[in-house]
Amino acid sequence: MSSAVFEPLAFRNLTVPNRVFRSNVAGRFDLYDGTGTQARINWELKFARGGVGAILSSWVGVDLRGRIVPHYASIDRDDRVPFWRELGRQVHEHDCRYVVQLAHAGRQRDVRGFELRKGLSSTDRPDPVHGFESERATPADLAAIARAFADAARRVREAGLDGVELHAANGYVFTQFLSSAINDRTDDYGGPLEKRARFLLEVVRAVRAEVGDDFHLQVKLSATERHKALVPWAGDGNTIEESVQVCRWLEEAGVDAIHVSRGSAFPHPDNPAGESSIAEAARAYGPMLSSGVHTFRNYALFKTPLVRRLFERQWARDPGRIEGSLLDDARAIKRAVSIPVLCTGGFQTRPVIEEAITSGACDAVTIARGLIANNDLVRLFADGHERAPRPCSYCNRCLYNVLEHPLGCYDERRFASREQMVAEIMSVFDDAGVRDPEPAGA
Fold this sequence. Notes:
By secondary structure, the chain is an alpha/beta fold. Helix content is about 35%, strand content about 15%. Helix 7 crosses helix 11. The chain is globular, with a radius of gyration of 20 Å.
């Protein structure tokens, strides 16, 4: 059909066949040490078959100390390359591109591996919500992390994948340096914005030096942090004006696109916006209890009815105002740079996406929850639907369940029965007709 959604998008080093990207999201489908499994390939194939132009991988760790949770596939060693090569080969069979999101947790973790020490960060203060412990990274530590990102990007290219995204949003290590609400350093990596951005820019240059100028490199950034929405007694963090300047520096450093997000942490009231069920959160919070110094306190508070109601009121967002809620930030960045801008934020309606693109607010949208609910959403758009017959309800049950259960849509209201819902969630473990990854050295 004739629609801006189905126009190809040409980056400097990559062309994507349409304007809908699967945003970075995945469950704990892999082995404890970060070895990828067939379940992850099956997960990605759901969206490649469903018609998205490109998939942004889930959070992929570049360094063992910097992972957020065990059982996420990583790319921290050369022997990871065959798995990622096979994943990319199968995704490419569906005319879908695959971009690996490279990330480092810093102090923000979900479930700490038994072998890990404190997280390396811009600060030695623990995370204020969960109390994830932190160690102030030295310049030597930062140089080692930059090297880890560059080596990981090289492995992505060797695997035949289509590009990398540096995760500089939502509270992970780059946010911890960029944010005026988190970074308390007084050396060359703290203080004014230019110094807070130094680490990210050094990593961009290290990646470029390793993979060359002809490989796709984009950055995901929290354009507005709104730190007070999460920690009311703290500073609000970076503004859109500061992020616009960071994006200008990123373009000068050789970045090919900006991916716009929001929030100084994950989760955050604005990301993912929607329903907040603390009862659901409490049920799934168990795996985190040993990870931070405040986690048991939080669990007890989640069980307290008055606190639960106050928390849910703080986090609740009107479902009718979620879709496209980040477009003002994306528009401000797009006016300031000449590279393409991607925007996330609850998209699942074709006319809304078309308007976002044709109005010049962004060049493409990225979708997570809407595609978890309807893996074939882009095919539905192509068939003439403006929205899926059973759209995502923004209930966020997928988020609440992900640490304990397989990722999927847990809104029973969207299914004919609970059995149908369970079958859909468990289908990622069905290996029928799917080839095993090639052996190392093949």
